[in-house]
Amino acid sequence: xxxxxxxxxxxxxxxxxxxxxxxxxxxxxxxxxxxxxxxxxxxxxxxxxxxxxxxxxxxxxxxxxxxxxxxxxxxxxxxxxxxxxxxxxxxxxxxxxxxxxxxxxxxxxxxxxxxxxxxxxxxxxxxxxxxxxxxxxxxxxxxxxxxxxxxxxxxxxxxxxxxxxxxxxxxxxxxxxxxxxxxxxxxxxxxxxxxxxxxxxxxxxxxxxxxxxxxxxxxxxxxxxxxxxxxxxxxxxxxxxxxxxxxxxxxxxxxxxxxxxxxxxxxxxxxxxxxxxxxxxxxxxxxxxxxxxxxxxxxxxxxxxxxxxxxxxxxxxxxxxxxxxxxxxxxxxxxxxxxxxxxxxxxxxxxxxxxxxxxxxxxxxxxxxxxxxxxxxxxxxxxxxxxxxxxxxxxxxxxxxxxxxxxxxxxxxxxxxxxxxxxxxxxxxxxxxxxxxxxxxxxxxxxxxxx
Length: 451
Prior knowledge:
Layout: E1 24-26, E2 32-33, E3 36-37, E4 40-43, E5 53-55, E6 77-83, E7 89-95, E8 103-110, H1 118-126, E9 130-135, H2 152-164, E10 169-178, H3 180-186, E11 198-202, H4 208-212, H5 220-229, H6 236-241, H7 248-251, E12 265-271, H8 277-290, E13 300-304, E14 314-315, E15 318-319, H9 334-342, E16 355-359, E17 372-376, E18 390-391, E19 397-398
């Protein structure tokens, strides 16, 4: 592929070190997490020759950039140091198609090393897109403080403004990425810049506080492992622990108050066992029902029986039928989505149902109901009504308040917590569990029908 001329790139600048530098990631054999294939990561300190440390998938998300990630050098790549409003420059790789532009642009902003986008860049250029992959602030070749999602809410819009001014951009910009790469997309919404024309959001969260402090409780193991494994600065964890309550810090990292300003059409792809399952649904409903005219009523939601790794059959101890990794339409196909939105191709995606979801069933019984895909025009797919249920002294749940019953109590020792053995968490293999150890005391309430 022949390199196309662009404005002269600024020489790459390695930002000042903050302890160790971020981990680099190497693609491996097929394992889908956040929709993208990887099995191994190798952490390396920059500018020295450190021992290599294998990181398990629990440090996850570092492989969330695209389905065809590759470290191979892509012919035709150019690198710019793009200035943000405060003067900090972000390292940005640009992959241009052959021939005369301008072309539609696909932007991916990642904290996991832009060099991982080489495969996508080369593939996208062959498909007639300019692909732009950018290291987030403080990460790898970018300048700035090495903190998670630090100023992404302004760096994303600044990058969009810069793209719009480039001679190879035809004005139509799509954004792409999973997990952290979806969060950086969501943080562009409702800011002082033109929004992307379309987005492909895989396992993302519109409200960072809800993901880090679900129900107001710090998700300690997962967050600490992710920060440590991703090699953020030594002050990164303290920055989040300093805000245990929802405050102005988190408001700048929460899209939900700005849904009314959303002006982009998007795919929202998630899994029932994913850490951001509710976030994926929330962003779809927010864009779809409260978004601006360009967004409202034009969103697509796909929810499968997946963990943080989508389009697969295994979720923890459960293995779903083979149909679990094959939705009945192509909404999950990001290239077809961009073809429809950025090139105007009539490939059926625009007229596909708004919602595609998997109804889970007993995976051990082939005659059991469920384990099928269904579609709907809205979420929830049927009309629902909110009800209040109350904990009762007999350990039931009922719609009537408990009255004057004596309170129930249980002992909790923070020094000896009950371990998390499943549910929506990382690593991906946790997920669904077919049995729960009975060695620890548990307290539960359920409705009379389930007792």
